[in-house]
Amino acid sequence: MPFQPNQDDVKAINTIRTLALDTVNKANSGHPGAPMGMAPAAHVLFSRFFQCNPQDPKWVNRDRFVLSNGHACALQYTLLHLLGYKVSIDDLKQFRQLDSITPGHPELGVTEGVEVTTGPLGQGFANAVGLAIAQAHLGATFNKDNFSLFDNYTYMFTGDGCLMEGVASEAASLAGHLQLGNLIAVYDDNQISIDGSTSIAFTEDVGKRFEAYDWQVLTVEDGNDDLEGIYKAIEAARAEKNKPTLIRLKTVIGFGSRDQGTHGVHGNPLKADDTVEIKKKFGFNPEEFFVVPDETKKIYADVAKRGAEAEKKWQQAFDEYKAKYADEAADIERRIAGKLPQGWEKALPEFKPTDDAVASRKLSEVLLAKLSTVIPELVSGSADLTPSNLTRWKNAVDFQPKANGLGDYTGRYIRYGVREHGMGAIANGIAAYGANLMIPAIGTFLNFVSYAAGAVRLSALSHQRVIWVATHDSIGLGEDGPTHQPVETVAHFRALPNCNVWRPADGNETSAAYYMALTSTHTPSILALTRQNLPQLEGSSIEKANKGGYTLVEVDGKPDVTFVATGSEVAIAVEAAELLSKQGVKARVASLPCWEVFRAQDSQYKLSVLPDGAPIVSVEAYTTMGWAEFSHAHCGIDTFGASAPAKQVYAKFGLTGEAVAKRAEKAISYFRDLGHPVYSPLSHQLAL
Amino acid sequence: MPFQPNQDDVKAINTIRTLALDTVNKANSGHPGAPMGMAPAAHVLFSRFFQCNPQDPKWVNRDRFVLSNGHACALQYTLLHLLGYKVSIDDLKQFRQLDSITPGHPELGVTEGVEVTTGPLGQGFANAVGLAIAQAHLGATFNKDNFSLFDNYTYMFTGDGCLMEGVASEAASLAGHLQLGNLIAVYDDNQISIDGSTSIAFTEDVGKRFEAYDWQVLTVEDGNDDLEGIYKAIEAARAEKNKPTLIRLKTVIGFGSRDQGTHGVHGNPLKADDTVEIKKKFGFNPEEFFVVPDETKKIYADVAKRGAEAEKKWQQAFDEYKAKYADEAADIERRIAGKLPQGWEKALPEFKPTDDAVASRKLSEVLLAKLSTVIPELVSGSADLTPSNLTRWKNAVDFQPKANGLGDYTGRYIRYGVREHGMGAIANGIAAYGANLMIPAIGTFLNFVSYAAGAVRLSALSHQRVIWVATHDSIGLGEDGPTHQPVETVAHFRALPNCNVWRPADGNETSAAYYMALTSTHTPSILALTRQNLPQLEGSSIEKANKGGYTLVEVDGKPDVTFVATGSEVAIAVEAAELLSKQGVKARVASLPCWEVFRAQDSQYKLSVLPDGAPIVSVEAYTTMGWAEFSHAHCGIDTFGASAPAKQVYAKFGLTGEAVAKRAEKAISYFRDLGHPVYSPLSHQLAL
Fold first, then answer.
1. Please, what are the domains in chain A?
2. Which of A52, A595, B73, B123 could serve as a FRET partner for B562 with CA atoms 20 to 30 Å apart?
3. pLDDT band, residue B5 (cuts 50/70/90)
4. HEC profile for A508-540?
5. Nearest chain A Cα distance for residue B208, angstroms
6. Maximum Cα–Cα distance for chain B, whole Å?
7. A467-471 and A525-528 as β-strands: parallel, antiparallel, unpaired?
8. What DSSP state is assigned to residue B629?
9. Predicted ipTM of the assembly
10. Residue A159 touches partner B, C-beta closer than 8 Å
11. For residues B48-56, average pLDDT
């Protein structure tokens, strides 16, 4: 259909601008510039193309919208209001206020219609790549002749800030490689960032760079007024099926303000008199606020109607599909319901102490292979460390464009390249496609999860089930040395709210880690896994480990000391306990594979694992920061590691059964000499 | 001079290959592929161009070499040996062994001649940009007509892995903008990464991308044999004064091995029979190991001689310079000696309790302005948050290419763009130029230091004085909300060895933070600074705060409770103490601006600040992870923050004088009821 912008469109655009302006002014805080500049593109996109049903915000085949420049969220909230999502004028008036649904940056789970959490620059860009991957995969997996159940587009708005960020570069390069024709980015090329003109730091040829990534690059020279140009660009982007598209939209930031085109309009409310003039210029009464003209209401009511009809048609198609493809339909319904397949957990292997010693990365490989057969939504991948992370099951199909002959979009193994941050943020996008549609597991060395810290943080804040397969988890990796040996990484992510860090000690604990990671639907998990072999421990079980911490070795009568350890150091603690027992010293051993899950147990249980009455000594091959919560003395490494064969590095840092036993003896005699009762550190903290 | 490669060159190249091979084989661990592939480029570069004096590895105007693909370090160690650095054949035989000077990846400070720590991919690339910035700045600052004291090149080897990393993309974009003609990157385009062919994930047009960044891009089609082509490319790169150059060198990984050109030769020693065949092919006796033919020795002896002569000439020039430009020469000598200017510390302002309440970011602005006038090597900058970080002093000149009219290379303010990770890694490179030549201070929001975690880690491991000006350090930033409010960040960097995290509570503590950051020559510092105003505290002083922790408020007689707090929460603890005092409860207050520095004090001092005898309650607007080391009860936020005006967010999380006082009352009564002595958590830990 030809596009005919009319006066109602112009009015709608100015409505978006003034609504965003009123929203920011009312809060006396926020970013008016980008919403005012991007209002035309937003209006053309949403009024003419965007498919969504505000009455059913989770309709699976809706188009996805990502505001990667999340500081412009007054724009997004305004649009959500106009479209009829549960964002009222009162909500707009509560912008950036305590416990409102219109926080300072868009947050998944807080505002209906917000697909991902954005604001930290570059993240939304990569999330959108993940959302596009999810559509491509689900379409390839479930669509049939005449049934295009998954065919939505992912639209993303982005700005200079995002495009300077490495995480967006990584994701863009991969998106081009993957030929994601369903991904359309609108780049707000307003030449302004916080420091001023982009000429001071960002003079690269962005269009050429994206062409180098194999994107289609289109330019709209006048993004403020050329509505037809915007329309045609989006149309051309939708028509290009084998490349993502970047629409370079030249706009004026704060369009309409007397300070338009400067960074003065970026991050602060506009002055009162400027606001008055803007409203007059746009034909609005400056003494009225939060005004939506009827014509604008009508346009957006029609969009909502269009979306509701589209969903209705989709539902009809799905009903027919169901009749023809019962299994597939049942799988889709199960995934939409957010349920794992019945009985999937039977795939988790259990181990006996007589079983072979195995590296936990290898245990993870076995698990992924088993789980891949029973959980079809599990999609694995690695940042170019597949043979080290062991994330790929035999006969896995790579997720690749058919054209390159290396796999196809039904593939469940993603080759992320050496792009850890991009991978983490893309995984957030994959998970954001919704419910159990896809569950991403992503691999790298534990040390390099830190490269993706910005993305992990948003997994946690957004309550997304992303599973990091983080191998080579300590000095136990040996020769690669301190540049690759994490010592602080686990502490970092333990300090992050809503993030489960697992450090399994053997096969049963590895099964537990996967069980908990998969069933913690609103929490990311980092599975820290060894390169080196671990013995199967006497006393471990999936059930016990599911509690995050448990008593592995109990003693008869009053214990003299309790060891508490994680992962590869549990066996060292057990060895120390055995050495002590030969001297008549009674040593308990607790395994604490996941602090976060252990903390969630009741006090009585926790104190049964780490009881009063005897000193507690921790053993973990990391910096000891954080251990005072659980133990009196800490065996660890409060420096960087060393490059050498693993056993020698362990010995260098006093992480041997013998050295740990000596440390325990010291603790025992110190507390004996003190002559006072010994309290578990937990004991005081739980009471306070 | 025309280049005439001869048989000795070929022999030298094969010597490098076989030495690297023997090195990896002896360790039975390491990466033979890239050294074998890059040996020709390495030989041409070092034999014909590279200027260094192995007898004086720190000669300030030496060319810098960065091996960004640090896993190829067998190549670098081999070259250092041949050049005559303190890397013996025995050291090569100790590759990847405990406490050797040839660890698994190159480490600054461990091996003479290694300029930066590499291995974590992409870091070296950005370090090289920093080294090039340093040269450009020092040249512009100190060179005079006929005196080109600073004119070295920075050469960097890099691989596919680095070029996929966002940190390298960020740095490359900035390097192009800055027109760094002194930077020459040799890209080992061997089409192989760990997962296999780059065709599976990295199919972008790298050359075009770098052209988009405004680099000169040259290609050597046969990097294995075309020595003349390599020579000419380096020559052309040196001739281009206004652009950095990427030389795309097409090579075969593991050249000479029967598995050459596959990922099989990337990260594991080659098979014994393969090694035999390779040596034969290259004309070496397979039964001899670590062999350096005389012809090769001679070539590299000549290189060393050339370098020694160059330094001698430089020294003569410097002596003349000294006569003509005494002040500049004295400044250069002081910087090379690693000394701050005499009396610089007098610039640190002191504050009285009657002085105005000021945000610590604002205090930092005042400090930077004062320090900039007395410490000329201090170079500031921000990742596009200058007006928020307040990192730019009035009248600062931007570090920019003269051609763009926005500054020049004498400028001491760097506009990094929205590139936090790149900024952190570039700052490492700037610091790596050596001694006090330049001291980088870099700004972003505290929350986004996490984006640069990979670079911060290497600052710490490499013992580099990089100063992060990390503003907006908590929920106190208010409306921007949880996406921007750090809660875990400080714990993360506290867990990192050799990284000082400062959270000053007022003006005196901010002065102390800068004093310690500038004088901690081998440690990076993160200064966490507030957006909101902080009162000047009664009892604070620079001297006390320099200890990392001190008693701010003492009581007469036996205290009932001790508060311990940091930064903006110290004033809240003081308020709580005052509230309690009205009820006759004696509350001490300790301020702990820097845990790392406090930990380094003697036990007696530490226990005087956090003594036995009364419960200790911490107050900090972060997750409480780690506080059990110092306190019994912790007032903090074990979840994400909230978007609202700052005071409301503080109230929501119970961080008010009143709420904190109540928490203290609870702790007091708990311990009273217990009826046992109360030990400072430090007390046990120090004894154990």
1. 7-309 (3.40.50.970), 344-534 (3.40.50.970), 548-687 (3.40.50.920)
2. A595
3. confident
4. HHHHHHHHHHHHCCCCCEEEECCCCEECCCCCC
5. 6
6. 91
7. parallel
8. G
9. 0.98
10. no
11. 98
